[in-house]
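Please, structure for the following, as tokens.
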Amino acid sequence: MDTVTTSFFAEEGPPEAEFNPGIARRMAHKTVAAGALIRDSSDRILFVVPNYKPYLDLPGGIVETGEPPSAGCRREVLEELGLDRPVGRLLVVDWTPGRGPWSDQVQFVFDGGVLDPAEVVRPAADELTGFRWLPLEAATIRASLRRRLSLALTALATGEPIHAEMGHRYQ
């Protein structure tokens, strides 16, 4: 845990006592995921090719217990691509329902910036078969991710983060 997160915990004081034993265990628990929208100088998006699902995805992944989404994003980009990049501003927060083996998720998309051509991308062989630079319209991705990334590009242009549900702007 970094010093900023540690200081946030110190400001909060001691953990809250559970007045009704077991109630916290019975509450719903959602998966949190975080990804980075990384672009090149031609505005193409960096997609990863996972070896565990049939679609392209953003670099990123599941946030660990006790880990802030921005830190999870940075860790996942480093693990997946060997890129230790600062995480930029929040672009989209999107909820997606559970489907197949995946539980419902709250997904954060952060600005991953423009990759310098000198930076080397090294896909992790244990979870990726490669990566692709593609314009959004050419990517083979789920419809909800296409909508989420379209919203992320809007957020980049407007400077305002967007709340979405299954890739649809929530108003």
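The helical segments are 3-12, 23-26, 69-81, 143-158. The longest helix spans residues 143-158.
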